[in-house]
Specification:
Layout (H helix, E strand, L loop, with lengths): L8 H12 L8 H5 L4 H9 L2 H6 L2 E5 L4 H15 L3 E4 L4 H14 L5 E4 L18 H5 L4 H17 L4 E2 L24 H17 L3 E7 L20 H8 L1 H8 L4 E4 L19 H11 L5 E4 L5 H4 L6 H9 L4 E2 L4 H13 L5 H17 L13 H5 L2 H14 L1 E4 L2 H5 L6 E6 L6 H9 L3 E6 L5 H11 L4 E7 L13 H12 L3 E6 L16 E4 L5 H11 L27
Parallel strand pairs: 1-2, 1-8, 2-3, 3-4, 4-5, 5-6, 6-7, 10-11, 10-12, 12-13, 13-14
Antiparallel strand pairs: 9-14
Length: about 575
Protein backbone atom coordinates (compact mmCIF):
# COMPACT_ATOMS: atom_id res chain seq x y z
CA UNK A 1 0.00 0.00 0.00
CA UNK A 2 1.14 3.56 -0.68
CA UNK A 3 2.15 5.58 2.34
CA UNK A 4 0.09 8.73 2.63
CA UNK A 5 1.96 12.03 2.63
CA UNK A 6 3.05 13.08 6.10
CA UNK A 7 0.64 15.71 7.36
CA UNK A 8 1.51 18.08 10.18
CA UNK A 9 0.40 16.27 13.33
CA UNK A 10 -0.11 19.59 15.07
CA UNK A 11 -2.73 20.36 12.42
CA UNK A 12 -4.20 16.86 12.84
CA UNK A 13 -4.50 17.36 16.61
CA UNK A 14 -6.34 20.64 16.01
CA UNK A 15 -8.74 18.85 13.67
CA UNK A 16 -9.33 16.15 16.27
CA UNK A 17 -10.24 18.83 18.81
CA UNK A 18 -12.64 20.47 16.36
CA UNK A 19 -14.28 17.13 15.63
CA UNK A 20 -14.59 16.39 19.33
CA UNK A 21 -16.34 19.69 19.94
CA UNK A 22 -19.26 18.71 17.74
CA UNK A 23 -18.48 19.99 14.26
CA UNK A 24 -17.58 16.73 12.53
CA UNK A 25 -18.22 13.80 14.81
CA UNK A 26 -18.26 10.39 13.17
CA UNK A 27 -21.03 7.88 13.79
CA UNK A 28 -20.47 5.82 16.93
CA UNK A 29 -19.02 2.34 16.74
CA UNK A 30 -22.18 0.82 18.23
CA UNK A 31 -24.45 2.45 15.66
CA UNK A 32 -22.14 1.39 12.83
CA UNK A 33 -22.23 -2.26 13.99
CA UNK A 34 -25.93 -2.44 13.15
CA UNK A 35 -25.41 -1.34 9.55
CA UNK A 36 -24.73 -3.52 6.53
CA UNK A 37 -21.07 -3.14 5.53
CA UNK A 38 -19.74 -4.28 2.17
CA UNK A 39 -16.12 -4.35 3.30
CA UNK A 40 -17.00 -6.48 6.34
CA UNK A 41 -19.09 -8.89 4.25
CA UNK A 42 -16.41 -9.14 1.59
CA UNK A 43 -13.62 -9.90 4.08
CA UNK A 44 -15.78 -12.39 5.99
CA UNK A 45 -16.65 -14.29 2.82
CA UNK A 46 -12.98 -14.67 1.89
CA UNK A 47 -12.06 -16.28 5.23
CA UNK A 48 -12.30 -19.96 6.07
CA UNK A 49 -13.55 -21.15 9.46
CA UNK A 50 -10.07 -21.28 11.01
CA UNK A 51 -9.34 -17.72 9.91
CA UNK A 52 -12.69 -16.46 11.14
CA UNK A 53 -12.09 -17.94 14.59
CA UNK A 54 -8.62 -16.40 14.64
CA UNK A 55 -10.19 -12.94 14.35
CA UNK A 56 -11.64 -13.31 17.85
CA UNK A 57 -8.22 -13.67 19.50
CA UNK A 58 -5.96 -10.82 20.59
CA UNK A 59 -2.46 -11.86 21.70
CA UNK A 60 0.19 -10.20 23.86
CA UNK A 61 2.99 -8.09 22.35
CA UNK A 62 5.98 -6.28 23.89
CA UNK A 63 8.90 -4.27 22.58
CA UNK A 64 11.14 -4.82 25.60
CA UNK A 65 11.57 -8.61 25.39
CA UNK A 66 14.04 -8.94 22.54
CA UNK A 67 13.99 -10.11 18.94
CA UNK A 68 13.14 -13.76 19.63
CA UNK A 69 9.96 -12.76 21.47
CA UNK A 70 8.97 -10.29 18.73
CA UNK A 71 9.53 -12.96 16.08
CA UNK A 72 7.40 -15.45 18.01
CA UNK A 73 4.46 -13.02 17.95
CA UNK A 74 4.91 -12.63 14.20
CA UNK A 75 4.66 -16.41 13.78
CA UNK A 76 1.40 -16.47 15.75
CA UNK A 77 -0.02 -13.69 13.55
CA UNK A 78 0.74 -15.69 10.41
CA UNK A 79 -0.25 -19.13 11.66
CA UNK A 80 -3.31 -18.31 13.75
CA UNK A 81 -4.69 -15.31 11.77
CA UNK A 82 -5.38 -13.44 15.02
CA UNK A 83 -7.63 -10.40 14.96
CA UNK A 84 -5.35 -8.15 16.96
CA UNK A 85 -2.58 -7.49 19.43
CA UNK A 86 -2.44 -6.02 22.92
CA UNK A 87 0.81 -4.12 23.46
CA UNK A 88 2.42 -3.84 26.87
CA UNK A 89 5.78 -2.49 28.06
CA UNK A 90 8.33 -0.99 25.71
CA UNK A 91 9.08 2.21 23.86
CA UNK A 92 7.06 4.18 21.27
CA UNK A 93 9.64 4.09 18.49
CA UNK A 94 10.17 0.36 18.82
CA UNK A 95 6.42 -0.23 18.99
CA UNK A 96 5.73 1.85 15.87
CA UNK A 97 8.30 -0.12 13.89
CA UNK A 98 6.99 -3.44 15.17
CA UNK A 99 3.35 -2.55 14.46
CA UNK A 100 4.34 -1.66 10.90
CA UNK A 101 6.07 -5.04 10.55
CA UNK A 102 3.17 -6.98 12.05
CA UNK A 103 0.58 -5.21 9.92
CA UNK A 104 2.60 -6.03 6.82
CA UNK A 105 2.56 -9.78 7.50
CA UNK A 106 -1.10 -9.96 8.55
CA UNK A 107 -3.61 -10.89 5.84
CA UNK A 108 -6.23 -8.63 7.43
CA UNK A 109 -5.19 -5.42 9.21
CA UNK A 110 -4.77 -6.03 12.94
CA UNK A 111 -6.66 -4.13 15.62
CA UNK A 112 -3.99 -2.84 17.99
CA UNK A 113 -5.04 -2.39 21.63
CA UNK A 114 -3.39 -1.14 24.82
CA UNK A 115 -4.30 -0.65 28.46
CA UNK A 116 -3.88 3.11 28.73
CA UNK A 117 -6.01 4.29 31.62
CA UNK A 118 -3.68 7.25 32.13
CA UNK A 119 -2.42 7.33 28.55
CA UNK A 120 0.53 5.76 26.76
CA UNK A 121 2.70 6.41 29.82
CA UNK A 122 0.92 3.54 31.57
CA UNK A 123 2.92 1.18 29.32
CA UNK A 124 5.59 3.02 27.34
CA UNK A 125 8.67 5.02 28.22
CA UNK A 126 9.23 8.49 26.70
CA UNK A 127 5.48 9.22 26.60
CA UNK A 128 2.95 11.34 28.50
CA UNK A 129 1.14 10.09 31.61
CA UNK A 130 -2.08 11.85 32.54
CA UNK A 131 -3.30 11.75 36.18
CA UNK A 132 -4.69 8.51 37.60
CA UNK A 133 -8.47 8.21 37.68
CA UNK A 134 -8.66 8.88 41.44
CA UNK A 135 -7.16 12.34 40.84
CA UNK A 136 -9.48 12.87 37.86
CA UNK A 137 -12.41 11.96 40.11
CA UNK A 138 -11.73 15.12 42.14
CA UNK A 139 -12.11 17.42 39.13
CA UNK A 140 -15.36 19.38 38.93
CA UNK A 141 -15.14 20.33 35.23
CA UNK A 142 -15.86 17.19 33.20
CA UNK A 143 -14.99 19.01 29.99
CA UNK A 144 -11.35 18.71 31.07
CA UNK A 145 -11.78 14.93 31.26
CA UNK A 146 -13.29 15.01 27.76
CA UNK A 147 -10.27 16.94 26.49
CA UNK A 148 -7.98 14.37 28.07
CA UNK A 149 -9.87 11.66 26.20
CA UNK A 150 -9.23 13.51 22.95
CA UNK A 151 -5.54 13.90 23.75
CA UNK A 152 -5.21 10.21 24.63
CA UNK A 153 -6.94 9.33 21.35
CA UNK A 154 -4.46 11.45 19.43
CA UNK A 155 -1.52 9.70 21.13
CA UNK A 156 -2.92 6.23 20.50
CA UNK A 157 -3.82 6.86 16.87
CA UNK A 158 -0.46 8.51 16.21
CA UNK A 159 1.10 5.22 17.34
CA UNK A 160 -1.22 3.07 15.24
CA UNK A 161 -3.39 1.92 18.17
CA UNK A 162 -7.16 1.68 17.67
CA UNK A 163 -8.45 0.43 21.06
CA UNK A 164 -7.92 1.68 24.59
CA UNK A 165 -8.96 -0.73 27.34
CA UNK A 166 -10.22 2.23 29.38
CA UNK A 167 -11.85 3.94 31.21
CA UNK A 168 -12.31 2.08 34.48
CA UNK A 169 -16.00 2.26 35.42
CA UNK A 170 -15.60 0.40 38.73
CA UNK A 171 -17.04 2.08 41.82
CA UNK A 172 -14.19 1.70 44.30
CA UNK A 173 -16.07 1.45 47.60
CA UNK A 174 -13.44 -0.77 49.24
CA UNK A 175 -10.39 1.25 50.39
CA UNK A 176 -8.34 -1.95 50.58
CA UNK A 177 -9.10 -3.03 47.02
CA UNK A 178 -5.73 -4.37 45.82
CA UNK A 179 -6.32 -4.07 42.07
CA UNK A 180 -8.70 -1.15 41.32
CA UNK A 181 -8.34 1.52 44.01
CA UNK A 182 -6.62 4.63 42.55
CA UNK A 183 -7.59 3.38 39.05
CA UNK A 184 -11.23 4.25 39.81
CA UNK A 185 -12.85 7.69 39.67
CA UNK A 186 -14.00 7.08 43.24
CA UNK A 187 -16.74 5.61 45.42
CA UNK A 188 -19.65 7.76 44.18
CA UNK A 189 -21.43 5.90 41.38
CA UNK A 190 -22.76 9.09 39.78
CA UNK A 191 -19.32 10.72 39.68
CA UNK A 192 -17.79 7.50 38.31
CA UNK A 193 -20.39 7.37 35.53
CA UNK A 194 -20.07 11.04 34.57
CA UNK A 195 -16.26 11.02 34.55
CA UNK A 196 -16.06 7.73 32.70
CA UNK A 197 -18.49 8.87 30.02
CA UNK A 198 -16.62 12.17 29.53
CA UNK A 199 -13.31 10.32 29.11
CA UNK A 200 -14.78 7.67 26.79
CA UNK A 201 -16.68 10.22 24.70
CA UNK A 202 -13.50 12.26 24.24
CA UNK A 203 -11.69 9.20 22.93
CA UNK A 204 -14.53 7.95 20.74
CA UNK A 205 -15.31 11.35 19.20
CA UNK A 206 -11.65 11.43 18.15
CA UNK A 207 -11.85 7.98 16.55
CA UNK A 208 -10.50 5.67 19.27
CA UNK A 209 -12.50 2.67 20.52
CA UNK A 210 -13.08 2.96 24.29
CA UNK A 211 -13.74 -0.09 26.48
CA UNK A 212 -15.54 0.28 29.83
CA UNK A 213 -14.20 -2.10 32.49
CA UNK A 214 -14.55 -4.31 34.56
CA UNK A 215 -18.20 -5.40 34.25
CA UNK A 216 -20.22 -5.97 36.37
CA UNK A 217 -17.96 -4.08 38.80
CA UNK A 218 -14.62 -4.87 40.45
CA UNK A 219 -14.62 -2.03 43.00
CA UNK A 220 -15.58 -3.94 46.15
CA UNK A 221 -13.19 -6.88 46.08
CA UNK A 222 -10.27 -7.72 48.35
CA UNK A 223 -8.66 -10.18 45.90
CA UNK A 224 -6.66 -9.29 42.80
CA UNK A 225 -8.06 -11.34 39.90
CA UNK A 226 -4.57 -11.48 38.38
CA UNK A 227 -3.74 -13.97 41.13
CA UNK A 228 -7.01 -15.63 42.22
CA UNK A 229 -10.77 -15.60 41.67
CA UNK A 230 -12.49 -12.84 43.69
CA UNK A 231 -15.92 -13.47 45.19
CA UNK A 232 -18.60 -10.81 44.86
CA UNK A 233 -21.15 -11.89 47.51
CA UNK A 234 -23.75 -9.16 46.96
CA UNK A 235 -27.41 -9.43 46.00
CA UNK A 236 -28.66 -8.79 42.48
CA UNK A 237 -30.44 -5.68 43.77
CA UNK A 238 -27.20 -4.27 45.22
CA UNK A 239 -25.25 -5.03 42.03
CA UNK A 240 -27.96 -3.46 39.84
CA UNK A 241 -28.16 -0.29 41.89
CA UNK A 242 -24.45 0.25 42.60
CA UNK A 243 -21.81 -1.76 40.74
CA UNK A 244 -23.64 -1.93 37.41
CA UNK A 245 -24.98 1.63 37.47
CA UNK A 246 -21.98 3.27 35.71
CA UNK A 247 -21.96 0.54 33.04
CA UNK A 248 -25.67 1.06 32.41
CA UNK A 249 -25.03 4.77 31.95
CA UNK A 250 -22.02 4.12 29.70
CA UNK A 251 -24.09 1.82 27.49
CA UNK A 252 -26.81 4.47 27.19
CA UNK A 253 -24.12 7.00 26.26
CA UNK A 254 -22.82 4.80 23.42
CA UNK A 255 -19.69 3.16 24.81
CA UNK A 256 -17.97 1.08 22.12
CA UNK A 257 -16.99 -1.87 24.26
CA UNK A 258 -17.36 -3.45 27.70
CA UNK A 259 -14.71 -5.62 29.35
CA UNK A 260 -15.85 -8.47 31.59
CA UNK A 261 -14.07 -9.13 34.89
CA UNK A 262 -13.00 -12.49 36.32
CA UNK A 263 -15.21 -12.76 39.40
CA UNK A 264 -17.41 -15.38 41.04
CA UNK A 265 -20.86 -13.79 41.52
CA UNK A 266 -23.35 -16.33 42.97
CA UNK A 267 -26.32 -13.95 42.81
CA UNK A 268 -25.90 -13.74 39.03
CA UNK A 269 -24.66 -17.27 38.30
CA UNK A 270 -24.72 -20.03 40.92
CA UNK A 271 -22.13 -22.23 39.14
CA UNK A 272 -19.31 -22.80 41.63
CA UNK A 273 -15.95 -21.18 40.83
CA UNK A 274 -17.21 -19.92 37.49
CA UNK A 275 -15.65 -16.56 36.58
CA UNK A 276 -18.05 -13.96 35.18
CA UNK A 277 -16.02 -14.04 31.94
CA UNK A 278 -17.31 -17.58 31.37
CA UNK A 279 -20.92 -16.98 32.40
CA UNK A 280 -23.65 -16.85 29.78
CA UNK A 281 -26.20 -15.53 32.31
CA UNK A 282 -23.90 -12.56 32.99
CA UNK A 283 -22.57 -11.86 29.48
CA UNK A 284 -25.55 -12.70 27.29
CA UNK A 285 -28.61 -12.59 29.58
CA UNK A 286 -27.64 -9.50 31.58
CA UNK A 287 -25.19 -7.44 29.51
CA UNK A 288 -26.47 -8.15 26.02
CA UNK A 289 -30.17 -8.84 26.63
CA UNK A 290 -31.18 -6.94 29.79
CA UNK A 291 -28.85 -3.95 29.34
CA UNK A 292 -29.18 -4.20 25.55
CA UNK A 293 -25.48 -3.69 24.91
CA UNK A 294 -24.71 -4.05 21.21
CA UNK A 295 -21.02 -3.15 21.17
CA UNK A 296 -17.83 -5.19 21.57
CA UNK A 297 -17.82 -7.57 24.55
CA UNK A 298 -14.20 -8.00 25.60
CA UNK A 299 -12.68 -10.44 28.09
CA UNK A 300 -10.21 -9.40 30.73
CA UNK A 301 -6.87 -11.14 30.14
CA UNK A 302 -7.60 -14.85 29.87
CA UNK A 303 -4.12 -15.71 31.17
CA UNK A 304 -4.98 -14.33 34.63
CA UNK A 305 -5.14 -16.78 37.56
CA UNK A 306 -8.69 -15.65 38.31
CA UNK A 307 -9.77 -17.71 35.28
CA UNK A 308 -6.96 -20.21 34.54
CA UNK A 309 -6.97 -21.58 38.11
CA UNK A 310 -10.11 -23.58 37.36
CA UNK A 311 -10.09 -23.63 33.54
CA UNK A 312 -6.59 -24.18 32.08
CA UNK A 313 -5.21 -24.95 28.59
CA UNK A 314 -7.71 -23.03 26.50
CA UNK A 315 -10.82 -24.48 28.17
CA UNK A 316 -11.63 -21.02 29.55
CA UNK A 317 -11.53 -19.51 26.05
CA UNK A 318 -14.06 -22.01 24.77
CA UNK A 319 -16.37 -21.30 27.69
CA UNK A 320 -16.11 -17.52 27.28
CA UNK A 321 -16.80 -17.89 23.55
CA UNK A 322 -19.92 -19.97 24.28
CA UNK A 323 -20.98 -17.48 26.97
CA UNK A 324 -21.17 -14.66 24.43
CA UNK A 325 -17.70 -13.09 24.35
CA UNK A 326 -16.69 -11.29 21.15
CA UNK A 327 -13.02 -10.49 21.76
CA UNK A 328 -10.85 -13.02 23.62
CA UNK A 329 -7.87 -11.21 25.10
CA UNK A 330 -4.54 -12.85 25.93
CA UNK A 331 -5.46 -16.52 25.80
CA UNK A 332 -3.26 -18.83 27.85
CA UNK A 333 -3.14 -21.17 24.85
CA UNK A 334 -4.73 -19.54 21.78
CA UNK A 335 -3.80 -22.39 19.44
CA UNK A 336 -5.55 -25.03 21.53
CA UNK A 337 -8.44 -22.69 22.33
CA UNK A 338 -9.09 -22.03 18.64
CA UNK A 339 -9.08 -25.78 18.01
CA UNK A 340 -11.70 -26.32 20.76
CA UNK A 341 -13.87 -23.51 19.42
CA UNK A 342 -13.60 -24.81 15.86
CA UNK A 343 -14.91 -28.16 17.05
CA UNK A 344 -17.96 -26.55 18.72
CA UNK A 345 -18.70 -24.41 15.66
CA UNK A 346 -18.47 -27.46 13.40
CA UNK A 347 -20.92 -29.33 15.65
CA UNK A 348 -23.20 -26.26 15.60
CA UNK A 349 -23.26 -26.00 19.39
CA UNK A 350 -23.36 -22.29 18.65
CA UNK A 351 -25.76 -21.08 15.98
CA UNK A 352 -24.17 -20.06 12.66
CA UNK A 353 -25.85 -16.65 13.05
CA UNK A 354 -24.26 -15.99 16.45
CA UNK A 355 -20.83 -17.08 15.23
CA UNK A 356 -21.06 -14.90 12.13
CA UNK A 357 -22.19 -11.92 14.22
CA UNK A 358 -19.15 -12.25 16.52
CA UNK A 359 -16.63 -12.30 13.71
CA UNK A 360 -18.34 -9.52 11.78
CA UNK A 361 -18.38 -7.38 14.91
CA UNK A 362 -14.57 -7.55 15.07
CA UNK A 363 -14.32 -6.79 11.35
CA UNK A 364 -16.77 -3.90 11.69
CA UNK A 365 -14.64 -2.46 14.50
CA UNK A 366 -11.67 -2.61 12.14
CA UNK A 367 -13.65 -0.76 9.50
CA UNK A 368 -14.81 1.91 11.99
CA UNK A 369 -11.21 2.42 13.10
CA UNK A 370 -10.12 3.06 9.51
CA UNK A 371 -8.27 -0.20 8.94
CA UNK A 372 -10.04 -0.83 5.63
CA UNK A 373 -7.73 1.92 4.33
CA UNK A 374 -4.74 1.01 6.47
CA UNK A 375 -1.56 3.06 6.12
CA UNK A 376 1.68 2.41 8.06
CA UNK A 377 2.65 4.57 11.02
CA UNK A 378 4.79 7.58 10.08
CA UNK A 379 7.79 7.26 12.40
CA UNK A 380 9.22 10.68 11.55
CA UNK A 381 8.78 13.14 14.48
CA UNK A 382 6.94 10.46 16.51
CA UNK A 383 8.48 11.37 19.87
CA UNK A 384 7.97 15.08 19.25
CA UNK A 385 4.30 14.55 18.45
CA UNK A 386 3.70 12.31 21.47
CA UNK A 387 5.38 14.84 23.79
CA UNK A 388 3.87 18.00 22.33
CA UNK A 389 3.57 21.06 24.62
CA UNK A 390 -0.24 21.01 24.43
CA UNK A 391 -0.30 17.59 26.14
CA UNK A 392 2.03 18.73 28.93
CA UNK A 393 -0.12 21.81 29.45
CA UNK A 394 -3.24 19.65 29.68
CA UNK A 395 -1.60 17.48 32.35
CA UNK A 396 -1.00 20.64 34.39
CA UNK A 397 -4.57 21.86 33.82
CA UNK A 398 -5.93 18.54 35.03
CA UNK A 399 -3.63 18.62 38.05
CA UNK A 400 -4.60 22.19 38.92
CA UNK A 401 -8.28 21.21 38.74
CA UNK A 402 -7.76 18.07 40.86
CA UNK A 403 -5.95 19.62 43.83
CA UNK A 404 -8.30 19.42 46.80
CA UNK A 405 -8.40 21.49 49.99
CA UNK A 406 -9.97 19.28 52.65
CA UNK A 407 -9.19 21.55 55.62
CA UNK A 408 -8.44 25.24 56.01
CA UNK A 409 -8.90 28.26 53.77
CA UNK A 410 -6.89 30.55 51.49
CA UNK A 411 -5.55 32.58 54.43
CA UNK A 412 -4.25 29.51 56.25
CA UNK A 413 -2.81 28.14 53.03
CA UNK A 414 -0.79 31.14 51.92
CA UNK A 415 0.59 32.35 55.24
CA UNK A 416 3.27 35.07 55.39
CA UNK A 417 5.97 35.05 52.71
CA UNK A 418 8.33 37.13 54.90
CA UNK A 419 8.36 34.80 57.90
CA UNK A 420 10.97 32.17 58.64
CA UNK A 421 9.59 29.05 56.96
CA UNK A 422 10.41 25.34 57.11
CA UNK A 423 9.53 23.33 53.98
CA UNK A 424 9.58 19.60 54.73
CA UNK A 425 9.24 16.73 52.26
CA UNK A 426 8.59 13.30 53.77
CA UNK A 427 9.14 9.89 52.17
CA UNK A 428 11.88 11.08 49.80
CA UNK A 429 15.67 11.01 49.47
CA UNK A 430 16.17 14.23 47.51
CA UNK A 431 14.69 17.69 47.07
CA UNK A 432 11.20 17.67 45.58
CA UNK A 433 9.50 19.89 43.01
CA UNK A 434 7.15 20.92 45.83
CA UNK A 435 10.08 22.26 47.86
CA UNK A 436 11.85 23.88 44.93
CA UNK A 437 8.77 25.72 43.69
CA UNK A 438 7.54 26.75 47.14
CA UNK A 439 10.95 28.06 48.24
CA UNK A 440 10.86 30.53 45.33
CA UNK A 441 7.84 32.17 46.95
CA UNK A 442 9.24 31.93 50.49
CA UNK A 443 12.80 33.30 50.28
CA UNK A 444 13.32 33.06 54.05
CA UNK A 445 12.96 29.26 54.05
CA UNK A 446 14.92 26.10 54.82
CA UNK A 447 14.34 22.72 53.18
CA UNK A 448 14.18 19.51 55.25
CA UNK A 449 14.13 15.93 53.96
CA UNK A 450 12.71 12.90 55.80
CA UNK A 451 13.07 9.37 54.44
CA UNK A 452 10.52 6.60 54.91
CA UNK A 453 12.63 5.01 57.64
CA UNK A 454 14.63 7.93 59.04
CA UNK A 455 15.89 6.96 62.55
CA UNK A 456 14.10 8.38 65.57
CA UNK A 457 17.21 10.28 66.73
CA UNK A 458 17.38 12.15 63.40
CA UNK A 459 13.67 12.88 63.51
CA UNK A 460 13.92 14.34 67.01
CA UNK A 461 16.87 16.46 65.95
CA UNK A 462 14.92 17.84 63.00
CA UNK A 463 11.90 18.59 65.19
CA UNK A 464 14.15 20.55 67.51
CA UNK A 465 15.49 22.55 64.56
CA UNK A 466 12.00 23.32 63.26
CA UNK A 467 11.07 25.00 66.56
CA UNK A 468 12.94 28.12 65.41
CA UNK A 469 10.70 28.45 62.32
CA UNK A 470 7.46 30.43 62.47
CA UNK A 471 5.55 28.37 59.92
CA UNK A 472 5.82 24.92 58.36
CA UNK A 473 4.86 23.49 54.98
CA UNK A 474 4.89 19.70 54.75
CA UNK A 475 4.76 17.50 51.66
CA UNK A 476 3.89 13.83 52.15
CA UNK A 477 5.12 11.79 49.16
CA UNK A 478 4.44 8.22 48.10
CA UNK A 479 7.34 7.59 45.72
CA UNK A 480 6.10 4.15 44.65
CA UNK A 481 5.01 3.81 41.04
CA UNK A 482 1.47 2.93 42.12
CA UNK A 483 0.03 4.85 45.11
CA UNK A 484 -1.35 2.33 47.62
CA UNK A 485 -3.95 2.80 50.36
CA UNK A 486 -1.30 2.68 53.08
CA UNK A 487 2.01 4.52 53.14
CA UNK A 488 5.15 2.43 53.56
CA UNK A 489 6.51 4.75 56.27
CA UNK A 490 7.90 3.65 59.62
CA UNK A 491 5.72 4.27 62.69
CA UNK A 492 8.21 6.92 63.87
CA UNK A 493 7.88 8.86 60.62
CA UNK A 494 4.08 8.69 60.91
CA UNK A 495 4.33 10.06 64.45
CA UNK A 496 6.51 12.88 63.11
CA UNK A 497 3.68 13.85 60.74
CA UNK A 498 1.28 14.07 63.69
CA UNK A 499 3.80 16.27 65.55
CA UNK A 500 4.19 18.59 62.57
CA UNK A 501 0.42 18.76 62.05
CA UNK A 502 -0.05 19.88 65.65
CA UNK A 503 2.26 22.88 65.20
CA UNK A 504 0.73 26.30 64.67
CA UNK A 505 0.44 27.40 61.07
CA UNK A 506 1.25 24.01 59.56
CA UNK A 507 0.09 23.27 56.02
CA UNK A 508 0.25 19.67 54.78
CA UNK A 509 0.09 18.58 51.13
CA UNK A 510 -0.48 14.86 50.49
CA UNK A 511 1.02 13.56 47.25
CA UNK A 512 -0.26 10.05 47.82
CA UNK A 513 -3.41 7.96 47.55
CA UNK A 514 -6.20 9.81 49.38
CA UNK A 515 -7.00 6.65 51.36
CA UNK A 516 -3.50 6.88 52.90
CA UNK A 517 -4.65 9.87 54.97
CA UNK A 518 -6.67 7.46 57.16
CA UNK A 519 -3.40 5.83 58.24
CA UNK A 520 -1.98 9.13 59.53
CA UNK A 521 -3.78 9.82 62.82
CA UNK A 522 -3.33 13.39 63.97
CA UNK A 523 -3.01 14.87 60.47
CA UNK A 524 -6.46 16.40 60.87
CA UNK A 525 -4.98 18.83 63.45
CA UNK A 526 -3.06 20.63 60.73
CA UNK A 527 -4.14 24.18 59.90
CA UNK A 528 -4.70 23.29 56.26
CA UNK A 529 -4.54 20.08 54.23
CA UNK A 530 -4.26 19.73 50.46
CA UNK A 531 -4.66 16.42 48.63
CA UNK A 532 -2.57 15.87 45.49
CA UNK A 533 -3.41 12.14 45.06
CA UNK A 534 -0.06 11.05 43.55
CA UNK A 535 3.64 11.89 43.45
CA UNK A 536 3.74 13.57 40.03
CA UNK A 537 5.49 16.89 39.47
CA UNK A 538 2.39 18.52 37.96
CA UNK A 539 0.37 17.86 41.13
CA UNK A 540 3.20 19.18 43.28
CA UNK A 541 3.19 22.37 41.20
CA UNK A 542 -0.59 22.54 41.54
CA UNK A 543 -0.31 22.41 45.33
CA UNK A 544 2.20 25.27 45.30
CA UNK A 545 -0.12 27.26 43.06
CA UNK A 546 -2.97 26.70 45.53
CA UNK A 547 -0.81 27.67 48.50
CA UNK A 548 0.41 30.87 46.85
CA UNK A 549 -3.02 31.93 45.60
CA UNK A 550 -2.36 31.40 41.87
CA UNK A 551 -5.29 28.99 41.64
CA UNK A 552 -8.27 28.08 43.78
CA UNK A 553 -8.24 24.43 44.91
CA UNK A 554 -11.63 23.43 43.50
CA UNK A 555 -11.28 19.63 43.71
CA UNK A 556 -13.51 17.48 45.88
CA UNK A 557 -12.56 14.17 47.49
CA UNK A 558 -13.76 11.36 45.19
CA UNK A 559 -13.53 8.77 48.00
CA UNK A 560 -14.36 8.64 51.68
CA UNK A 561 -11.15 8.69 53.73
CA UNK A 562 -12.61 8.60 57.27
CA UNK A 563 -15.18 10.41 59.41
CA UNK A 564 -13.16 13.65 59.18
CA UNK A 565 -12.96 13.60 55.39
CA UNK A 566 -15.93 11.92 53.62
CA UNK A 567 -16.58 11.79 49.87
CA UNK A 568 -17.22 15.26 48.46
CA UNK A 569 -15.06 17.12 50.98
CA UNK A 570 -13.51 20.20 49.38
CA UNK A 571 -13.38 23.89 50.12
CA UNK A 572 -14.06 25.40 46.71
CA UNK A 573 -15.79 28.55 47.92
CA UNK A 574 -12.78 30.61 48.99
Amino acid sequence: MQLKKHVSHTLFFALVLIAGNGFAQKASLVSSLAQQNRWVDSVYDKLNRRQRIGQLFFVRAHTNRGQAYSDSVGKVIKKEHVGGLVFFQGGPGRQANLVNQYQQISRIPLLIAMDGEWGLGMRLDSTISYPYQMALGAIQDNNLIYKMGQAVAYDFKRLGVQINFAPDFDVNNNPNNPVINYRSFGDNKYNVARKGIAYAKGMQDAGLIAIAKHFPGHGDTNVDSHFDLPLLPFTRERLDSLEMYPFHEAINAGIGGVMIAHMSIPSLDTTKNLPSTLSRPIITDILKDSLMFKGLVVSDAMEMKGVTKYFPNGEADLKTFMAGMDLIELSENSKNAAKLIRKEVRKKHITPEEFEAKVKKILAAKYWAGLSNYTPIVTENLLRDLNRPAATELVQQLSDAAITLIKGDSRLLKQDTTKKTAIVSIGVTGQTVFQQELSKKYPNSMLFLVGKDTPLSALNKMLESIKQYEQVFVGIHDTRLRPQSKLDYSSDVKLLIAELAAKNNSVISVFANAYAIAGLPGIEKSGAILVGYQKDDALQRAAVKAITGQIKPTGKLPVSVNTFFPTGTGMNQL
